[in-house]
Amino acid sequence: MPFKDECGVFGIVPQAEASRQTYLGLYALQHRGQEAAGIASRSLGSDLNQIHLHKAQGYVADIFSESVLNELPGHASIGHTRYSTTGGNVASAAHPFLVHGRFGALALCHNGNLTNTELLREKLIQQGHTFNSPSDSEVILGLISRAEAGTLIEAVEEALRQCEGAFSLLILSEHLLMAARDPHGFRPLAYGRMPQENGVQAHVFSSETCAFDLVGANYEREVEPGELLIVKADNTTESRFPVARVAPRPCVFEHVYFSRPDSFVFSRSVMATRREMGRILARQHPVEADLVVPVPDSGVSAALGYAEASGIPFEFGMIRNHYVGRTFIEPKQSIRSFGVKVKLNPVRELLKGKRVVLVDDSIVRGTTSKKIVEMVRAAGAAEVHLRISSPPTTHSCFYGIDTPTRDQLIASHNAIEQIREFVKADTLGYLTLEDLRGAMQDPGDTFCYACFNGEYAVQPNGPEPKGSGLVPFPAAKA
What we know:
Blueprint: E1 8-13, H1 18-28, E2 36-42, E3 52-57, H2 60-63, H3 66-70, E4 76-82, E5 97-101, E6 104-114, H4 117-126, H5 136-145, H6 152-162, E7 165-172, E8 176-181, E9 190-194, E10 202-206, H7 210-215, E11 218-222, E12 228-232, E13 237-240, H8 253-258, E14 264-265, E15 268-269, H9 270-284, E16 291-294, H10 300-310, E17 318-320, H11 338-341, E18 344-346, H12 348-351, E19 355-360, H13 367-378, E20 383-388, H14 416-423, E21 427-430, H15 433-439, H16 450-453
Parallel strand pairs: 16-19, 19-20, 20-21
Antiparallel strand pairs: 1-4, 1-10, 2-3, 2-4, 5-6, 6-7, 7-8, 8-12, 9-10, 9-11, 12-13, 14-15, 17-18
Helix pairs in contact: 4-5, 5-6, 9-10, 9-15
């Protein structure tokens, strides 16, 4: 099973119902984070130096009722749906963050993870700055507030030059809505425009274009790596590049798993790249079988490609319960593999006596994959051939994805045959890194493949993700 989701951001200006449009945008981005969500709104250029904010833990639809949205007026809004990376799953780490300082009220939301958070935090504390949360996003606001620059735009530029790692940011102020992306472009951020009855085109920003489809916006382009794109109160825009340009390294896992298949991410169709991954997987790891079955939902697109290239029929042999919440009450009596069973259930009539190709996007620790293979066998499958539409995951991510520490990644210290034995599949096949590059039409290293090869574009200054206490990049076990 895959890594856990990261975060999603959405922003719009000018729009009469900006907070409602942001609510819809976050609804479309719910798959990127289910722990918390928030919306900040105001009217650009108004005399009232006030930003309205509401955020809480939980799902978007549960947090924002009609009465809550009525308390978020204004024609400019930014929002965020969160899965914890830096800061953990605590209420104080929910976005957007809001501060009042010499540049007035500022709200910020952030997708990504700074690699020099602790160094920047210590520097700000020494300057007398206090923090209300453990989030690296609050560090960015601290840098802006304490910048020596004379204007807000210059202060944002000064702050961005100090940040290392991954960030796609939206910042809302009295007169501006700003979008910024780190120079490597690790995390996505799309820019679009939304036609309105008054003839004025609204500017829309989103982690994925699927949110544009819901609100009726037209995709224009990606916010470029290293770009600071500014929307002013008069609805004009300005593009700046405050940080020296470097070779972009967008995260390939957006296409492997994170993004919705109906999105364009990094100017590419996610569905098209995943189906190509499946086609290549079928050519590289053929097997005689009766059915191609995806692990829903992340394995569906690649499984379609595998079935297409192999000629083996595609079937939804496993059904996912889409209504499982963030937490559920387990029975007091132990039920084997309960956590998997509550989310996935096999279709026994389809699987019984069949040789099954089971397609998923990744294997992380291996424990969930093992339970799924066992579940398919228990449903009567004669054979289970596991196919993974990415290379073995051997390294942790430091750029905003919730990954285990390297010692917990099964592929970091086991050969493929050992992994096969552990998950109890009849055969196991992964894409190679070269195969993945082929599916992405990437002859060089345009994308970040660090979780597969350990080649980090930005070296982290702290411990591995989730505070394991291990030094970065521990040697793989023999």
